[in-house]
Design a protein that fits this description.
heterodimer, A: mainly alpha, B: 316 residues, alpha/beta, 4-stranded parallel beta sheet
């Protein structure tokens, strides 16, 4: 099952690499990619400029899309498992609103001449996302008095609302950065070559690895905390750890791609409808399906208005929603 | 084309007259121009709903003008109505010494505007129902939306002149700017013919097509806009990086080169951009963002700057 899904994901990534606005012929791109393999020598006939487009612009974008999609999907699945709430998504505890605030402040400061280079916005978004979730957690604990997840989620609603208000306030004060802020909020698979990929890769790797490690634990915990505790699992700690790594990964990918919605909720549910709710299959398949989904969405974003961009957040929602309804219908028919 | 709204005011008839006069004057000026076409085209489309009236005598001209648009502010001062301006919005910073306040043209606050007791409010976009608010309190206004082309900008100069009692100066100003632009085109001497360019609004590659106001200025020099391939996405599309690199423009103009912004060096460091003709030939140029985004009297300066860049280009 997982091997087949991995093959599909690979095919999607490969296909996405053949498509683009610069009119490279798919066959020469394939030849160029094959030429990069060890012991293979094919002359692709691409100019130096075309090779640069493929290796430094298009391929990193596809890879980044895969990393962002995989992380959002697996983080969403983890959140849904931890909160035992099918509507939970990685943005539940305010990470996106916090990141939006951080990014907006930095974009505005950049326009005013802060000059932190291209790293400024991702770093600020990352910090904003982490701070927002930490605030949610601490607030939830202090007012919740042990009433568990519901209070944390409600605290997240409050923190997100506050961060959104602050973000809007900053945005209104500095109108000349309006378009940059707006574009960031809609999401875009940034194309800073490989630097964005290397920036998020460690976080993505840790997030996916840790969440996958706990896939059986989550299955046990879904039976109930008492049963889990009798097997030596400490549910509260596992929850905290999983929320922490899912948040870390989400904050990292959001900081380079902006706010891309719908992936964290649609992909895990689509996978569940196919293979059932068990985390043992759900989590690894969410990684693969998330990568495929976002890379495909980016292909649409790159082709529909080519050579102009369509914000990828628009695409994930526009193709995600109908697709999701189809899956839902088939899923309910099967049960 | 002309949306004429019923203005609920005692002087509605007069205002309509003023509108007609202003428009006629615009047409006359345009007709005097160098074989101009009908200016009513372009994306700036609608004739401004000028509820302001032409003063009967110089003494009747508005004396407490509030401007909520940097372009309008520049036009007001250029036609000699600067002394009649009491407040301008937070984005207006030219010419030096304009009475900048914290008024916003994007999120206009009617109460704050009325605090200056204006007898004329000039703005570009009808944000936050500004127009109906001003209608309600009976304050005359003049809307100057982004014009679709240069002739549209000239019309606005004329309109501002008529409404503020400086019709002659406005007429002169149009002549001067026309003169400046044609001198710039002569100076470039066809050096721009057939060259391709990319005009960058921000680092995420928002740009303009030839259908935009600024794109028209470039077209005067025979420059070809690489973004025209994306005109399906409007006059201000966001281009894909791989397209810009593969389109390989001869010239890149940066309207996002303010402090902390982009520079020829930062463009050269973008992945895959080092081989672009403009980068290789040192033809990445920073432009003053204010001059490129406003449709005021400094259009001529922009044209001169472009002419200078083309003239300095090696091999011309």
């Amino acid at each position: 099952m997982i091997a087949a899904a991995a093959a599909v994901t690979f095919a999607v990534l490969l296909t996405a690499t053949l498509v683009g606005a610069s009119g490279l012929s798919p066959s020469s791109v394939l030849a160029e990619l094959a030429d990069a393999l060890p012991l293979v020598h094919i002359d692709s006939g691409l100019t130096t400029q075309q090779q640069a487009i493929l290796w430094q612009i298009r391929l990193p974008r596809v890879v980044l899309g895969a990393l962002v999609g995989a992380t959002l999907a697996v983080a969403g699945a983890a959140y849904q498992g931890v909160f035992r709430n099918p509507l939970a998504d990685p943005y539940l505890l305010g990470v996106s609103s916090g990141a939006g605030l951080g990014a907006t402040v930095m974009i505005v400061a950049g326009a005013a001449g802060a000059g932190m280079g291209s790293l400024g916005v991702p770093v600020a978004a990352f910090a904003g996302g982490i701070v927002a979730v930490a605030a949610t957690y601490l607030l939830g604990r202090s007012v919740g008095g042990g009433r568990g997840e519901v209070v944390i989620i409600l605290a997240g609603v409050a923190v997100a609302a506050f961060a959104n208000a602050a973000q809007t306030f900053v945005q209104q004060r500095y109108q000349d950065s309006l378009q940059s802020v707006y574009a960031w909020l809609l999401g875009r698979l940034s194309t800073d070559g490989w630097s964005d990929v290397t920036l998020v890769l460690p976080y993505v790797a840790v997030t996916i690895a840790v969440i996958l490690l706990f896939r059986r634990t989550l299955d046990v915990m879904s039976v109930g905390d008492v049963e889990a505790a009798s097997l030596g699992i400490r549910p509260a700690r596992v929850r905290l750890l999983l929320v922490a790594v899912a948040t870390l990964g989400t904050a990292a990918v959001v900081s380079v791609s902006g706010l891309i919605g719908f992936v964290g909720i649609v992909v895990p549910h689509a996978v569940r409808l196919v293979v059932g709710p068990g985390h043992r299959l759900l989590l690894p398949l969410s990684v693969l399906a998330g990568a495929s989904f976002l890379v495909l969405a980016d292909v649409v974003a790159r082709t529909i208005m080519s050579p102009a961009e369509l914000p990828i957040g628009v695409v994930t929602a526009a193709i995600g929603a109908p697709f999701f309804l189809v899956v839902l219908r088939r899923g309910t028919g099967m049960q | 084309m002309l949306h004429h709204r019923l203005v609920h005011s005692r002087r509605a008839a007069l205002r309509m007259c003023a509108l007609v006069i202003a428009l006629l004057l615009g047409m006359v000026l345009t007709a005097c121009g160098s074989g101009a076409e009908d200016p009513a085209g372009g994306s700036g489309g609608d004739a401004p709903g000028a509820a302001a009236e032409a003063p009967g005598s110089p003494g009747d001209a508005p004396q407490r003008i509030v401007s909520l648009s940097p372009s309008a502010t520049e036009i007001l001062y250029a036609v000699g109505a600067g002394d009649q301006v009491v407040a301008v919005d937070d984005q207006s910073d030219y010419p030096q010494g304009v009475p900048t306040t914290d008024l916003s043209g994007y999120t206009p606050n009617l109460e704050a505007i009325l605090g200056y007791q204006p007898d004329l409010v000039v703005f570009s976009d009808d944000n936050g129902d500004l127009k109906s608010g001003l209608d309600r309190v009976g304050v005359p206004y003049l809307q100057l939306p982004a014009p679709g082309d240069i002739e549209g900008a000239y019309e606005q100069f004329a309109q501002v002149g008529v409404v503020t009692g400086h019709a002659d100066e406005a007429h002169e100003l149009v002549g001067e700017v026309r003169e400046q632009i044609s001198a710039a085109i002569d100076a470039a001497g066809g050096a721009g013919e057939g060259l391709t360019y990319f005009h960058e609004l921000d680092p995420t590659l928002y740009t303009v097509t030839s259908a935009s106001f600024i794109g028209q200025v470039y077209s005067l020099f025979g420059l070809q806009n690489i973004a025209d391939a994306a005109s399906g996405a409007g006059a201000y599309p966001q281009l894909q990086p791989e397209f810009v690199v593969s389109a390989n423009p001869d010239l890149i103009f940066l309207a996002d080169a303010q402090a902390g912004g982009e520079s020829p060096a930062s463009v050269a460091q973008r992945p895959g951009w080092a081989g672009v003709t403009a980068v290789r030939d040192g033809q990445v140029h920073a432009l003053d963002a204010d001059i490129t985004s406003r449709w005021g009297p400094r259009i001529g300066d922009l044209a001169q700057r472009i002419a200078q860049i083309l003239a300095d280009r090696p091999g011309t």
